Each structure stands twice: as C-alpha cells, then as structure tokens.
Amino acid sequence: GQNASLGCHVEVGTNLSLTQSSWERLLPTGMITVAVFNPQFGISVAKEYRSRVRFLNPSVEDASILLEGVGFADIGPYTCKVVTFPLGNTQASTTLDVMDLAQKKHSSTTIEPKVYVSAGSVLVDGDQDVVVATCTAERALPPAWVSWETELSGRLKEFTQEEPNGTGTTTQVGYVWSPHRDARGHALICVVRHPKPGVFNLVMTLLAPDVLVEGQDEVWYVGQENAKLDCRADANPVPHAFFWTRLDVQMPEGVVIANGSLRFTRPLRKNNSGTYRCDVQNAVGLRSQEVDIWIRGELTFLSTLMNHPAAGSLRVSE
Ligand SMILES: *[C@@H]1O[C@H](CO)[C@@H](O)[C@H](O)[C@H]1NC(C)=O
Ligand SMILES: *[C@@H]1O[C@H](CO)[C@@H](O)[C@H](O)[C@H]1NC(C)=O
Ligand SMILES: *[C@@H]1O[C@H](CO)[C@@H](O)[C@H](O)[C@H]1NC(C)=O
Description:
Domain Ig-like: 1-97, 209-292
Shape: rod-shaped
Main location: membrane
InterPro entries: CD80_C2-set, Ig-like_dom, Ig-like_dom_sf, Ig-like_fold, Ig_sub2, Ig_V-set, Nectin/Nectin-like
CATH architecture of the largest domain: Sandwich
Subcellular location: Membrane
CATH class of the largest domain: Mainly Beta
Bound molecules: 2-acetamido-2-deoxy-beta-D-glucopyranose
Family: Belongs to the nectin family.
CATH superfamily of the largest domain: Immunoglobulins
Number of domains: 3
C-alpha cells in the first residue's frame, strides 16, 4: 500500500550524451519494460503501470521512478538501463521487497509471551465479588491483548507491568464474579492476541466442589483406634475450605479436623454413631456430603468376623 521510489542517478560526462533511460523488470515470463525516458521523444509508461508509475524528476541525470501503492505482485528485481552515445549501454539493478505492514512494525522486536491461566483468589467470607480465574500473558513485546470470553456476567480486572530491560510487558486479566451455584460447568475462555503466536485460547471450566467422603464404608466398632473420615472434592478453582459437622447432636470431643479429614484421637464409642456432614467451598460454591456412621459393639464385630472370616481377615490385616 505504500509508495516505493526506485532511484537511478546518471553521471553524464562531457562528450557523452544520454540517448534513453528506462526501467525494466524481470518476471518469470521474461523481461518487461516498465517506463522509458527519452530526452527527445519524452516519457512512456507501460500500459499496466500507467496509473501508478511516474518519473520523479525526469531528466538526463535522474531516472528515478515512483511506484505507487505497492503489492506483493511488485516484489522482484528491477533494472535501470541507460543508453549513451558513444559509450553504449550501462545498467544497475535493485530488488523491491514488500511486506505486511503489521509484520514490519513488529518484525525485529517481537517477544512471544508465556500464556497461562490460574484459578483465582480465595473467597473471603462475606465477599461477594471474587477473582475466580486469572489469565496471564507474561513478557510480551508488544504488549499482548488479553480478555475473558464467557456467558457469565462478571467483569474484568486488568493489571499490566513493564518488565525490566525491555523484556516485554506482563498483562494479567482477572475474571471477577459473584459466586453462584448455576456456574457449575460454565467455561471461561481466556483469549490472548499477539503477533506471536497469533490468537491463543485457553479454556477454564468452573466447577463447584463434587464431594466424596472416604472411610464411611469401613466397619467401625467400639474401641477402634485412629478412625477417620476423609473428605475429598473435585473442584475448580481448588477448594479453600472444608468443614465437618455432626447433624444429630454436637460434634463429640476427641475429634481433630484438619485437611478435610475428621479423625478420632481416642477409641471409638458406641455413641459416636450418627450423621456427619462434610461441606466444601470454593469460589464457585458450597457443596456437601452427609454420611451415616454406625459403630458396632465389640461383640457384634466379633460375630461378624466369625460369620464372614474372609471379610474379617481383610479387616484385621488393616
Ligand atoms: C503515493 O503517491 C501519491 C502520488 O504522489 C500520493 O497521492 C499518495 O498520497 C502517496 N501515498 C503514500 C502512502 O505515500
Ligand atoms: C571530448 O572530445 C574532444 C573532441 O572530440 C576531445 O578533444 C576531448 O579530449 C574529449 N574530452 C574528454 C573528456 O574525453
Ligand atoms: C537488567 O540490566 C541490568 C544492567 O544492564 C542488569 O544488572 C540486570 O541484571 C538486568 N536484569 C534482568 C532482569 O535481566
């Protein structure tokens, strides 16, 4: 789209006269003449170039031309030919290159960013708006364009930082949103645009916790030591809170709750039987799982062992 000037300057010594100067172009089909300057007969431009080629300063000393609105078809070698009397012909060549303007702008100074998404920040109790996910384009030159695409009605929070020594700009865009149960399974797509690597999409699926309690299927009996229930959750972002409660009565003493586990620090008692619930919360929501624990008397357990020796031996080996 730009204008290209092809320069051709002629030194005409004394006793030398310029008969004609011209521009020719080498195409796969052969040499063609683009434009001719003749001091006696004037200027002639080939039909296909007439609208966009002109001599800049037509004279015996200057055969420079301007080629307007160049396109990729103009790429290639061009030759300026000069016919003199009495010395004859002389010529010089140049090669025209045409590049995409966007590429030219970034060609020497492009740094491809490192792109990643991370699960958002921790939900503080009572906070309505939380950053559920952050998309980062690290050290981009020029700075990357970063955004989130989703059907959720949140908003974006952008943060940019110049890296030292011209190593680019880091752009982080957080997705800020009020947790709501309907978000389960909704996708957030981070879109990064940059000359390198072009457009980049990263998908993050938001999942409220899918809660599973391990340990409830064990045979629990009076006097058993180190009994525990483990609460596990499949969630995105990662859960930040696990709670254990006992539903029918108060949580008994002698129980430690840590890392999602409920552990009895003393031998089990008959009245530890009951309904327990694990609640797991992440930025998307709160989900629960209830478990009923039945603690057998020691005698009952022994009779179970005797009636089902195979099952019993498995338990004993634990
Ligand atoms: C190219 O040259 C033409 C004529 O000289 C001028 O009108 C036009 O603005 C120029 N275009 C550019 C991109 O310089
Ligand atoms: C130019 O031509 C004249 C006569 O033909 C000659 O005497 C003179 O030396 C020439 N000059 C040069 C620079 O060749
Ligand atoms: C930046 O450049 C300075 C001096 O040229 C150098 O001391 C420093 O280590 C560089 N920092 C990084 C992050 O490359």
